[in-house]
């Protein structure tokens, strides 16, 4: 009898556990897995128009993508955007974390100042930087005029607009990444630094040989988030440039938004979304496969 009660109790524990995770599983399936699968299926069908239902067209959407010059332009923009923002955001975050981790006057105020851009909505941050970039009376041009520099149209010049958006992203994201590095730095035992000093190691050697290797798990986590962020941030584009001029600041996700909700071509937008998901999945798998052993010293 006791064995039957034990088996029943074990089954009830399993059922109770599944009931606890059921709401999260339902939400994940409804808002993540089902939309992804549905998007993949829709990429093989034409966009329904009025009473005309969607028709199966196979790989036509993907063939159209290959011949689409705007797609290649925004893909190149996104690659430049990722290369320009990810390393600088991570390096700046690490530098800020190391600075506020030391004993200095006003440390709490400095931490708050570094983290404040993170809590601002991206649209609010974009409007702040619009004031900085505005030709004629923007803050940057006003400062430049003090040194005799001509006005610069940061967001109206195709050669400068993408770099201007990168600056907004770095300013916004670095404080967020700083929090993770700060937590990781505070988890490093002080005895390691004392031992390194006793061995005659300088600060640079201590950082390169001790601190940075111990921060690699955090760096990997931050890197994955930075890559995802580089492909998903479009709020500042909507508020500042709307992809212009001449698609010079348009990124892949913003182009998907335009195709789906401005041009109302949901089939082609689904195919673009599948490409975006494949890019992100490939990068994530590559990071885990090729970096995981080095990060955790296996």
Write up what this structure looks like:
The protein has 13 helices and no strands. With 298 residues, the protein is an all-alpha fold. The chain has a single domain, classed as MetI-like fold (Orthogonal Bundle). Helix 3 packs parallel to helix 7, helix 3 (69-101) packs antiparallel against helix 10 and helix 12 runs antiparallel to helix 13. The longest helix is centred in the first third of the chain and has 41 residues, at 2-42. The radius of gyration is 25 Å and the shape is flat. The model has no long low-confidence stretch (mean pLDDT 86).
List the defining traits of the structure above.
single chain, 298 residues, mainly alpha, MetI-like fold, 76% helix, 0% strand
From the structure provided, what is the oligomeric state, counting identical versus distinct chains?
Answer: single chain
Shape: flat
Distance between the termini: 48 Å
User: How many separate helices?
Assistant: 13
Structural class: mainly alpha
Order of helices and strands: HHHHHHHHHHHHH
CATH class: Mainly Alpha
The CATH homologous superfamily name equals MetI-like
Unreliable stretches covering 5 or more consecutive residues:
none
Helix content: over 70%
Mean pLDDT: 86
Using the 3D structure, state the CATH architecture. Orthogonal Bundle
- Radius of gyration from the alpha-carbon trace, in angstroms: 25 Å
């Amino acid at each position: 009898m006791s064995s039957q009660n034990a088996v029943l109790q074990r089954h009830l524990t399993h059922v109770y556990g599944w009931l606890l995770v059921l709401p999260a599983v339902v939400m994940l399936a409804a808002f993540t897995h089902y939309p992804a699968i549905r998007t993949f299926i829709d990429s093989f069908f034409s966009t329904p128009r009025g009473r005309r239902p969607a028709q199966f067209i196979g790989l036509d959407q993907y063939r159209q993508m290959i011949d689409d010059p705007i797609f290649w332009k925004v893909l190149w923009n996104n690659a430049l955007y990722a290369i320009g923002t990810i390393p600088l955001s991570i390096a700046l975050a690490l530098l800020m974390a190391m600075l506020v981790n030391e004993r200095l006057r006003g440390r709490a105020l400095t931490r708050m100042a570094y983290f404040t851009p993170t809590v601002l909505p991206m649209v609010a941050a974009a409007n702040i930087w619009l004031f900085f970039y505005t030709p004629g009376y923007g803050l940057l041009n006003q400062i430049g005029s003090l040194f005799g520099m001509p006005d610069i149209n940061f967001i109206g010049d195709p050669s400068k607009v993408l770099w201007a958006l990168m600056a907004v992203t770095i300013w916004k994201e670095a404080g967020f990444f700083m929090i993770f590095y700060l937590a990781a730095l505070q988890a490093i035992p002080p005895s390691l630094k004392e031992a390194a000093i006793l061995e005659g190691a300088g600060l640079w050697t201590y950082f390169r040989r001790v601190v940075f290797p111990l921060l690699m798990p955090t760096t990997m986590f931050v890197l994955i988030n930075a890559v995802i962020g580089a492909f998903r941030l479009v709020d500042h584009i909507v508020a500042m440039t709307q992809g212009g001029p001449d698609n010079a600041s348009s990124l892949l996700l913003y182009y998907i938004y335009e195709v789906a909700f401005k041009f109302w071509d949901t089939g082609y937008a689904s195919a673009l979304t599948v490409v975006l998901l494949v890019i992100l999945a490939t990068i994530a798998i590559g990071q885990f496969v090729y970096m995981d052993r080095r990060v955790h010293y296996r």
